[in-house]
Amino acid sequence: MIEEHIKQIEQKLGVNKVLIGEKVKERYEHIWEMDKPLCAKAVVFPSTTQDVSDILTICHKYHQPIVVHGGLTNLTGSTETNADELVICMEKMNVIEELDLSSRTITVQSGVVLETIHQEVEKENLLFPMSFGAQGSAQIGGVIATNAGGLRVFRYGMTRNLILGLEVVLADGTIISSLKKIIKDNSGYDLKQLFIGSEGTLGVITKAILRLQQKPKSRNSAFVAMNDFENVVSFLKFIDEGLAGTLSGYELLWERNFKAMTNPSTNISKPLSYGYKYYVLIESLGSNHEQDQQRLESLLEEALMAKLILDAALAQSVQHTELFWRIREDVDILVSQCNNVQNFDVSLPVSEIGTYVDTVFNILNKIPEIDNFFAHGHVADGNIHFLISKSNNSTELIDKINNIIYTPLTGLGGSVSAEHGIGIHKKPYLKFCRSNEEIKLMQSLKTALDSRGILNRDKILNHQ
Amino acid sequence: MIEEHIKQIEQKLGVNKVLIGEKVKERYEHIWEMDKPLCAKAVVFPSTTQDVSDILTICHKYHQPIVVHGGLTNLTGSTETNADELVICMEKMNVIEELDLSSRTITVQSGVVLETIHQEVEKENLLFPMSFGAQGSAQIGGVIATNAGGLRVFRYGMTRNLILGLEVVLADGTIISSLKKIIKDNSGYDLKQLFIGSEGTLGVITKAILRLQQKPKSRNSAFVAMNDFENVVSFLKFIDEGLAGTLSGYELLWERNFKAMTNPSTNISKPLSYGYKYYVLIESLGSNHEQDQQRLESLLEEALMAKLILDAALAQSVQHTELFWRIREDVDILVSQCNNVQNFDVSLPVSEIGTYVDTVFNILNKIPEIDNFFAHGHVADGNIHFLISKSNNSTELIDKINNIIYTPLTGLGGSVSAEHGIGIHKKPYLKFCRSNEEIKLMQSLKTALDSRGILNRDKILNHQ
C-alpha cells in the first residue's frame, strides 16, 4: 500500500522520479561510509526547484520528515535516515546554469559535484577556492549546508565567504530565491546566512551563485620545523606579513604524523630530518613563480637566522610540491595505520593549541586500549584534526575518548566541530561549546522556519 | 510623573545612568546630521552587559520600544526616535577588554569608536581593515549592526567577515554570549550572522571579538584611465591576477567626479589628463615597497601595451598616495558643489555597471531640477555611490530620483543598499530588490526574536 502523500508526490513529479520499498534497498545497497543498505520510506529525485517545492508542500501537509541526500560524504551522520523518512536525492539537479566571466561567478544547481565546478572554472583561468578530500563526490548543496572548510580557509574563508546568492525551499514549500551576483548587499536581513551551515535543518538548498577568484599563476611550498609552539605562532605572523596576501596554507603536523607519513612503507621521502616537535607546511599562491620563490626563500633564511624556525625545505619542482602536500593530505596513509579509527575536527584559539594537544596526548598515552594517535591541522585557522586508533569500538571507549578531546574545549573557548558539523554523532557534545541560551535560540529559529520539524529531523537539535 | 518602568530602570541602574524629559533635549540639542533636538522618553546609559539585559527585561515586560544609539553616523534613519521611545546610549560601554597578540584578536565593548580600535591595534603592528569616512565617530556596535563596508571590502570583506565572536542581548533580556576567538566553528547555527547587518532590530550588540590582520608594510597606489567599461572589468581581472592577493582597492570615478575633485578650486592637481570616460584608483597592500612598486609598474606597462588602459600614473611618494586617495575619498568636496544633496549606495553585478550608469546619467540630464550629479564607487565590489544636486527637497523630486536610481536594479539583480542599510528612508524601496517571500521570512525572524517588536521598531520592516 502506497501512502496517500507518496502517491501525490508521484502524481506531481511523475513515477520515474520516485523510488519506493524494495527498490530503495536495491539501488542503495552500497553507500560510502554506510555499512548497511539505505533505510527510507521512499527516495525522490527532483530535477527542478519547483519539484522540490512540490515535494515539501506535500510533506509539510502530511508531517512527513525528509532527509536531503547530496554526495553523502558527511562525517557526522547528517544524512542518516530511518524507515519513516523520505529521502530527497539531489543528483538530477546537476546543471551548471551560468559561468559569468565578467562578474566572476558561477550559478549552479545544488546537485553539482564540487570537482565538476573546479574543472569548469579552471578552463577559464578562474578558481573556486573550496577544496577538500571528498570533492570528487561532495555536491555543492552539501558543501554549503555544512559550511565546509578545507585547505585554503586562511586566505579565502569558509564556504560562507564564497557564496553570493542562494535559492532555498522552506519546509512549507516556499521558494526563497536570493540569487544575486553582488558582493555587497545590506538590503535587510542576509537570509542566506541562516541556511549556510545549518545542515539541511532550515531549508533545502536548490541553487547557488558562487564567487570565483583569478587562478593563481604560481604555487610555492615549504616545510619548516620548530620545537616550541610559541614559534609556530610567531612564525605564522612573520610569514603572513612577509608574504602579504599570498599566504594560503599553514598546516601543522606533530612529529608522530610527519614520521608516519614518511616512513619507508609509504614511499614518501622526508623533506626534513626527524627529531623536531612540530613540522609546518606553508603555501603561497602568487603570480610569478620565480619572484615568489625568491621572496619565500629570503623569508625562510631570515626566520632561520632569528631562530623562529630550526630547519626549512623549499619545494623545488611541481613533483616536490605534490609530495609535500601528500604528507599533509593523504590521510588514508594514517588511517591504514589505525584500527577502529575515531576522528575529530576541533577548533580553539591558536595560542592554546600547543598546551591543549600536549595534554590530550599525555592522557591518550595512558589508555591501554589506544594503540596509536595522530594530530594535524589547519593551525592558522585554529583547527586541529585527531585520528585515534583503538582496540575496539565499544560505546564506552568512544565516549571516553570524546570526553578527553572535548572537555578542555569548554574552558578554552573552543568548538567541538570546526568543519564537519554536529549531525547526530556530536549532538551530545554541542553543550560543550554552546550555552543553553544559544541552543534555545537555535531551537526558536528551527521552530520559526520549520514548525513541524520535517527537515532533517533530530540533526543538530532534538526534535521537539 | 515618571512612568513605572522608567522608575524600575532607574532603580536597577542608578539615577546617574538615566536621563528624562527636558534633560534629554538639553543634552542632545546638537546631533550630527539631525536638525532638531533628540525626541525620546528617556535616554539610558548602560555600562555593562547586565545593565543592557536589565533594561531590556523591563522594556520587554512593559512593551517599551527602544532605539540603540552608537556614533549616530547612520545615513538611513536607523537611529531616529520618537517621543514614545527609549534610547539606549552605548557610550559608557567603551572598554577595550583584551588585545590578544597570539590569536590576533581584539575584544571590545560595543561603544568603542572604530578609530580607537585602529589606533590600539596599530601600536602592535596589526590592522583592523574596516575603514570608512565616519570612523572617528562610528562605534563598533553600529559598524557590526549595519555590516559596514568601506574601502577594503574587495580584499578583506565586509564587517561580517571580520567578526569572530559576538555578545548580544535579545529583546527579552536574554544574553547570548558567543564570544569565541576561533575562525572556524560549525557547532550548530552561526547565530552571530543573524545580528550582523540587522540594524538593531533583532538584538542589542554588547561585545565583539574582531579578527585582526598583520599591518601591511607597503602601500602602492596608481590612477589609470580608460574609455570602455569592458576594460574596467578586464583590467580588474588582469591586475587582480598580477597583484596576487595584494590588491586591496579598485575604485572607479566617472570623469565628472575626477574633474570636480581636481579643478583649480580644490587645490588637488590632477594625476592624469582629462578626456577619458573612466578613472580607476588601485591600491596594493604588500610587504616590500620597492618590489611591490616594480611589480605594479611592470603590470601597468603591460596593460598599456595591451590597450587595457589608456594612461596611468603611479604614486611616487606618501604625499602623492594621500593626494590620490583624497580624489576618491574627500567626498566633502563633491558635497560642497551640490545643493540639497541626495545620495545612494546601490550595488549590481560588475558587468552591468557601465550601461546602468550611462542610462541613469541620461535620464538625470533631462530633469531641469537636477543641476549636478556624481558617481563613484567600489567597482570591484559592484558598489556605486551617486551624489545628486538639485534645486529643492520636495518629496516628489526625492521620490522621482529614487525611482530613477532604484527601478533598473530589479531587473539587473542589484540592491538598493550595498552598505548603508534600509533604516527608515529606504523602506519603501526594499521590495525593489527583495521578493515578497524574502520579506515575509524577515518578518518571521523578527517575530521569533522580538515578539513585541520593541527593538528599533519600524526600521527595515513595518511593525506588525
UniProtKB/TrEMBL annotation, chains A, B:
Co-factor requirement: FAD
InterPro entries to which the protein is assigned, alphabetical: FAD-bd_oxidored_4_C, FAD-bd_PCMH, FAD-bd_PCMH-like_sf, FAD-bd_PCMH_sub1, FAD-bd_PCMH_sub2, FAD-linked_Oxase-like_C, FAD-oxidored/transferase_4, Oxid_FAD_bind_N
Any GO molecular function: FAD binding
The entry's keywords: FAD, Flavoprotein, Oxidoreductase
GO biological process: respiratory electron transport chain
One family name in Pfam for this protein: FAD_binding_4
Alphabetical list of SUPFAM superfamilies matching this protein: FAD-binding/transporter-associated domain-like (SSF56176), FAD-linked oxidases, C-terminal domain (SSF55103)
Cited PANTHER family: D-2-HYDROXYGLUTARATE DEHYDROGENASE, MITOCHONDRIAL
Family named by the database record: Belongs to the FAD-binding oxidoreductase/transferase type 4 family.
Name of the protein described by the UniProt record: FAD-binding oxidoreductase
